[in-house]
Amino acid sequence: MQAPVHHTGQVGMIESDDGAAIRALMFDLGGVLIEVDFGRVLRAWAAVAGCDPLVLGQRFTFDEAYWQHERGELDASGYFASLRSSLGLGLSDQEFAAGWNDLFVGIAGGMPALLGAASRRYPLYAFTNSNPTHQCEWSARFAAELSVFRTVFVSSGLGLRKPDPAAFAAVARRAGLQAREILFFDDTPENIAGARAAGMPAVLARSAPPSISWASTPRRPARRDHPHKPCCRIAAVAEPLSGPPDAERMKGFATARLSSAPVTVADLRFLLALWADPQVAATLGGPRSAGQTERILREDIRHWLTHGFGRWILRRDGTPVGHVKLARCHLRGRAETELGYALLPSAQGHGYATEAGAGALTFARETAGLAEVVAFALESNTPSFAVMHRLGFRPEARLDLPAGPHRLYRKTLTEQPSQA
Q1: Is 326:362 a contact under the CB 8 Å cutoff?
Q2: How far apart are CA 288 and CA 272, in angstroms?
Q3: SS3 readout for the chain
Q4: Are residues 279 and 206 in the same domain?
Q5: 209 in a domain, yes or no?
Q6: Structural domain of residue 40, as residue ranges?
Q7: Which is nearest to 127 in space by CA: 202, 49, 22?
């Protein structure tokens, strides 16, 4: 059971309050201690290959080969071979590695002072999803800043990666602590959820490094096995996160028969079943693997936190029947917002797609403030074209996408969508 984390006061006061003392702090590296920019990687590869980095960005995915590389199951040569195929580049391993290591911008401002102050009171650890190529780079380049950590746990060495709760349990064991005795900081919501699922208190550190002051308040006499450190309550005072709180940004909507809620990690099992269904997969260009589904779910959560809209899980009488989404994308060199949906076969033919689409379009216009939305589907998916027409979309162009030829439709959000 996760130690409760309480927020009090004008700035977020975070306390471990289940009777267990916090005995160590653990930090993510990329996005917390070290600033990263994946655009630098794409631009470096594109410069060598003589192509458009935007094209590489559309082709690059955090696919199963990426996860295997970070779990130590695929070496650098194997991963770069996968990139040659998926990106259509003829770069050498050395050229891929050079661009790959352009990911790291530098140390986040204020973090060395913060960690220095924290280390005078608590043992510090780091836990990062990384690979040997990156590890060689950041461990040498940021050696001075990393010296504050007793151990830096790396996913490729563990054979486990965040957000798997087993990964958090493993690093706690290696640190000689219980998970509930470690306070974890990460910039990724799914990693926070994974830590908490393992019983580890966790704090989302987003946008900029938090300003943290440490205070200890006696709770009970010191345990005999730790005579040097009294049992205490730890309080972290963090600057407010930029932007509205997550709960305010992630909203659902309701229609006559359906309810909707923003997708969460708890919906993974449903999405695995939905996208593996042959009838559904045929409309998506093929089934999605467990690794692909996990990646998409993580991207969905990031999308919500970035844009304030995204994928909703649709329910009828509390039972999931499908999803509908508003998603940012790039088509023909232009930033767009896409309306998309998928329903279980048992939920098809009842008008749910039109009903959910109309609800999402109302959200797009009234809550997200969008001016127009696009939709596209495989040319063989005639039922979806009927839904688009009922929602007021107009045909615009033919798209040649990796999954096959699609038709692109567009709607200007000036009128209520018809559900006739």
Answers
A1: no
A2: 8
A3: CCCCEECCCCCEEEEECCCCCCCEEEECCECCCEEECHHHHHHHHHHHHCCCHHHHHHHCCCCHHHHHHHCCCCCHHHHHHHHHHHHCCCCCHHHHHHHHHHHEEEECCCHHHHHHHHHCCCCEEEEECCCHHHHHHHHHHCHHHHCCCCEEEEHHHHCCCCCCHHHHHHHHHHHCCCHHHEEEEECCHHHHHHHHHCCCCEEECCCCCCCCCEEEEECCCCCCCCCCCCCEEEEEEECCCCCCCHHHHCCCCECCCCEEEECCHHHHHHHHHHHHCHHHHHHHCCCCCHHHHHHHHHHHHHHHHHHCCCEEEEEECCEEEEEEEEEEEEECCEEEEEEEEEECHHHCCCCHHHHHHHHHHHHHHHCCCCCEEEEEEECCCHHHHHHHHHCCCEEEEEEEECCEEEEEEEEECCCCCCCC
A4: no
A5: yes
A6: 36-104
A7: 202
**CATH value at residue 42:** 1.10.150.240
- Cβ atoms 288, 281 nearer than 8 A: yes
- Chain-centre distance for alpha carbon 308: 14
pLDDT at 418: 52
Q: From 184, 211, 238, give the residue that closes a domain.
A: 238
Task: Select, from the ranges 6-10, 11-15, 138-142, 222-226, the one with the highest average predicted confidence (pLDDT).
Answer: 138-142
Maximum pairwise Cα distance, the chain: 73
Structural contact between residues 169 and 198, judged by C-beta atoms closer than 8 angstroms: yes
For residue 244, what pLDDT is reported? 35
Amino acid at 127: F
Tokens read off for 229: 């450190």
| Tens of pLDDT, residues 324-368 | 999 998 887 788 999 999 999 999 999 999 999 999 999 999 999
Answer whether residue 419 is part of any domain. Answer: no
CATH of the domain at 320: 3.40.630.30
Top-ranked range on mean pLDDT: pick from 27-41, 219-233, 292-306: 27-41
pLDDT of 122? 93
Q: Which amino acid is at 412?
A: T
Phi-psi region of 126 (alpha: psi -120 to 50; beta: other; left: phi over 0): beta
